[in-house]
């Protein structure tokens, strides 16, 4: 099958769960001998070294240079897509002329480009697929419904039900296709051999609760002999500067924890994987979460998880995580303490085994096969 994915920040080592999952899925589909092309923004083309990633073709959208961080970022992106719609149609039609596609998948109602175009102006007989990864912005969801996609997919029940509540006509029409992880075998380190740190594998944007995670760490730092590692790298679809500055100011006001918090520079996926596998604990302090790929990756390497129940996390991590009632520093601190005690007394082991079994359901080979089945109907 010939499949075109459209996502403005599709690329390797881009700091985002959607981006990583789409690359995992594309690589697996290619391994299964499907032809895969990714249509993405002009300034997000990755540098792909090695033969593994040459199996995917990347096409840069000449008219879609993703802006650097600005106020009202989503509105700026909408204006960019609307004002360049005609040029994008011409570019896509040239792509369709050069190679026949069986399916065209818009990954996200905003970042997936296609909902901003007129279907009748696209010269292809391919099936159009809307793949929701977030449920924000009713305006963008409405636009995606009006386009008239042949299939509607969502990354989680949480996203699908959130859309259906606002748009009852979509009830029962959205199939679930979750994010996925690579099938490759990983080395599982016993919890007793882990390094003494908590890893917060999240970009520094307000909805990820990283500032609250740092405040929670201060509360437990005197009773738990673990350090804290944060992801300080920037990302393609916004700036970490406001949250990063808040965190640095907080650390400056609390010098007793300054030597125990490491703000890592921009991490590659391989480096982030290594930290998840080495950590004594992964902390997911999100206030919003449409799926929770960082948590899934921690499950896959048997790392204890402390998490909120935001969005899809409560469902994904049922029976696996030590839950905090919310992202408040006090509740996060209490959950971290409970997790540490369960590591010490060994009671965490059952959760780790449950997580590992659950993670295997989200392997790329399974998700890729489910996608092909959906497209074949």
Verbal overview:
Pfam families: Glyco_transf_4, Glycos_transf_1. Its EC number is 2.4.-.-. This protein has 377 residues and is α/β, with parallel strands linked by helices. The protein has 2 domains: 2-177, Glycogen Phosphorylase B (Rossmann fold, 3-Layer(aba) Sandwich); 191-360, Rossmann fold (3-Layer(aba) Sandwich), CATH 3.40.50. It contains 13 helices and 13 strands. It has helices at 17-31, 73-83, 85-98, 138-147, 157-166, 210-220, 241-253, 269-278, 293-300, 313-316, 329-345, 349-359, 364-376; strands spanning 2-6, 35-41, 56-61, 103-107, 127-132, 151-154, 174-176, 197-200, 227-231, 261-264, 281-284, 305-307, 322-323. The strands form 2 sheets. The chain has a 7-stranded parallel sheet. Strand 8, helix 6 and strand 9 form a beta-alpha-beta unit. Helix 6 (210-220) packs across helix 11 and helix 9 (293-300) crosses helix 12 (349-359). The mean pLDDT is 92.
Features:
single chain; 377 residues; alpha/beta; Rossmann fold; 2 domains; six-stranded parallel beta sheet; 13 strands; 15% strand; EC 2.4.-.-; glycosyltransferase activity; transferase
